[in-house]
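Tutorial, part two.
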Amino acid sequence: MASMEQLRKVAARCSEHQFRNEWELRATVGLPEESCVNCIHLKDYKCELDLTDEILSNMSMELEDKE
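Running the prediction step on this input gives:
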């Protein structure tokens, strides 16, 4: 399972991320933290779109390319 930091980074790179309770977000002050945890596609700590592992893999390849 991905760490909380990884889930934040994945959400920042995910084109399908959608906040779970958009109406609550409009009532908050400031920007909510983007994370897989607050995405509508996360069910039982698993991305229903199967994007988490793909994005983590892409992130890993980007880091390898920089080295």
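Residues 11 and 35 are 5 Å apart (CA to CA). In part three we will examine how such features are distributed along the chain.
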